[in-house]
Amino acid sequence: MSPFCGSGPVNGTELTVYTAIFWGSVALGSFVAAMLVFSFFRFRRRSDDEPEPVQVHGNSRLELTWTAVPFVVLFGLFILSAVSLFFVNNVSASPKAASQVQDKVLGEQFAWVVTYPNGQQTVGTLYLPVGTPVNLSITSKDVIHSLFIPELLGQKNAVPGQVNTAWLEADQPGVWYGQCTELCGYGHYSMRIEVVALNYPDYNACVNTGKTIVTTSASCTKSGGSGS
Amino acid sequence: MHQERRFRLLMAVIDATLPRAVVRPRIDKTKGVMGWLTTVDHKRIAIMYLYTTVFFFLVGGILALLIRIQLAEPNNSFFSSNPVANAQIYNQIFTMHGTTMIFLWIIPVWAGFGNYFVPLMIGARDMAFPRVNALSYWLIPAGGLVMYSGFLFGGTGDAGWTGYVPLTEKLYSPQVGQDLWILGLHLLGISSMLGGINFLVTIHNLRAPGMTWFRLPLFVWSMEITSALVVLASPFLAGALLMVLLDRQLGTCFFDPSCGGNALLYQLLFWFYSHPAVYIMILPSFGLISEVIPVFSRKPIFGYRAMAYSMAAIAVLGFLVFIHHMFMTGLPTAVTMTFSATSMIIGVPTGVKIFNWLATMWGGSIRFDTPMLFAAGFLVMFLIGGIDGVYLGSVPVDSILHGTYWVVAHIHYVLFGGSVFGVFAGMYYWFPKVTGRFLSERLGKLHFWLMLIGMNLAFMPMHVLGLLGMPRRIATYPGGDGWGPWNSVSTFGAFVVAISITVFLINFVVSMRAPKTAPDDPWEGNSLEWATTSPPPPHNFDVVPEVRSLRPVRDLRRARRAATAESASPA
Known about the structure:
In chain A, 32% of the residues lie in helices and 25% in strands.
C-alpha cells in the first residue's frame, strides 16, 4: 500500500510534491545536521582551552540570513503545493474531465459501500475504468472515516452530514488496496477496500451485470507487488 | 558619615535588646506526610509535580510497550483471542498512552520544573499564589485517577487522545469510561489554567530588582509564553469537552448531524487548543535547552532577543496553523491553502532557534556532561521531527501521509526527541540544585546513549511504515503489506528505550543514597538559581543578588575571582 507503487495523475502529482520536499529537506536537513555534529566535535572542551572563549552575543546579518533562506525555501515548497492542490482537489482540472465517472462512497462501521452511476452497489470493492477520471462523493453513515487509497488517491475524510469529493484515475488495469485512516471504533483496523481497475469491457461487465471479474494484481516492481 | 555610624549603633542596640517574635504553628508543617500534604512552598510542590509526572510517564511507557508488543508482528492477538475484544482493549491502551503522555507527563512536568525554577530564576521567594499553586498540583493526580478509573468500570475512553466526535458520542462509545476521560481532562485543564495564571502573575510581578524583561533567562521567557498559550487556548478544549459531555449526558445536539449538529465543529475547537498545546509541550524545552547550551559551551546565547522573539512568533503563529490537522476533512481549497502557508512559515522561527543554538556552540568550549548530551540529542532529534512536519504541511503530500505512521513518527521525534530529551536535560542539569547531589555521570551517559539509539530504532521505522501506507491506530494488520519487519524493529527499539529509562531510575535511586556533594554552582551557571545553596533554603535567597546583566551569576563569579586575584597579589 505504498504511494510509490501508485498509478494515475493524482498520485503522480502528490509524488512530485513529495519528491521536491524530500530533496529540499535532505539538502537543508543534512546541512544543518552536519553543522551540528561538526560543532559537537570541533568545539569540544580541550585541556588548553581558555577559561572562557570569545563571548559573541549575536550577529544580525547572520540571523537575517538564516531567517530569510528557510523562508524562501519553505515559500517555494508552499507555492508548489498550492499549485498541485488545485489539480488534486478538483476533477475538472483533469484534461479528461469530460469523460468522468461519478461514484458515491459511503463509509460505515466497518465497511466501504460504493454506489455506481447505474445504482449498482459493491461493498469493500471499488471498480474503476482504466484511463478515466472517477469522481467520488464521499460521506459517512455514522462516525468519521477516511478513505485512504495511497496508490491512486491519497485520502479524503468521510464525514457524516457532509459530502466531500475526491478523484482518482488508474493508468493501467490492476488491484490496489485502501484502508480507513481515521479511528472509527473497534473494527477500524479491518476497514479495508479493494480497488480494481479494469479495461472498459470488463468494467462494464462488472458494474452493469454484477459479474465478478478475476483480476491479477497490479504490477508494481518497486516493493514486491501492489499493496496486496 | 557621622549620622550613618550613629544609625548603625542604634540598630545594633535594638537588635540586641528586643526579643525576636517566633511563630509556632500548631502542626509542624515542614516535616512528615502532613508537611507534604499541606505545603504551599513552590519547591516542594514542584517536587511532587515531578514525582507524579514521572510516575505517569512510567505508566504511559508501560502502555507503549503493550502497544508495541501487540504490533510486533502481523495478525497478533496479544490482548485477547477474540478479535473484537483484542481491538477494544488495544484502542483503550493507545488512547490512555497518548492522553497520559500529553496531559499527565509532558505538560505538567514542565509546570513542575517551572514551579521550582521560575521563582528562583527571577529572584522571587515563591510563586505569586502559593495556595492556588498547591491546588494546581493536586488536580493532577485527581485528574489521572478519574481518567484511569475507567478501567474499573468496563473500559476507559477509547477514541484516541483527540476524542473525535461522533465516535465519542454515547451511541458509539457507551462506556462510562469515556465520560471519566472527559472529566479527568477537565480537572487537568483547570490545573494547567490555574498554573498558567500563576506563572504569568509571578513573572510579571515578582522579578528581583534589575531583572528587566530582556534580562530574563530564556527558560522564564518560555514559561511566560507557554503560560499565555495555556490561558488563551485551554478554555477552548474545556468548552469542546463540555459540549461532548452535554451531548452524551443531556441529549444536546452539538455534534450529531442527524439532529442538526456538526461533526467538524469539535475538531475546530479541539485543534484551536491542541495545536497551541504542541507548543505548550515544546516551548519550555526550547527554553531549557537555551539555558543548558550556553552554560556548557561557556558562551552567551547567540541572539538572545531573536530567541525570545522567535518563541513569541511561534506562539502567535501556533494559533494560526491548527487547520493543518483538518486538511483532509473537505474544507475549501482556499482555507487549506492558507493554513498550509502558515504551517510552512512557522518553520522559519523554529529554524532561527536551531541556527542560533548552533551559533551558540560555534567557537565555544563545549563540555559534554549528561545535560549537554541530552541537549545535543534534542537538537538533532528535534531537527528530524521538525522536517517531518514540513511534509505534512503540504496538502497534497499530507494526502498520502495523513493518519499514517508517518504522523506517529513525526510526533514522537518532536515530543520524545524534543520535549522528553529536554526534560531529561533538565533532570540532569537541575538535579544537583534540587537535591544537593549529582546524578551519576556514568549511568547518565549510558541512559543517554540507550535512549538515543532506542528512540531511533523505535521511531525511524515508522517513517517507512507511513510511506508503506500503514494507518495509525490499527489494532493489527495482515502480513502481506511488508509492515511486519519494520514493526518488529520498532518494538525492539521501544524495549531499548525502556531499558534506558530503567537505567535512569537506578541512577536516581543510587544517587539519592549518595552524600550531598553538589556545590551551589556546579556547572558554572548563569542564572540566579545557581546563586543560592543546593538545595535552596525555604525562603530561596538570603540575599538576592543584584541583576545587572543577562548572566548575573557569571558576573558574581567574575567579581569574586577578581577579588581573590587582587588579594592574592598585594600591589
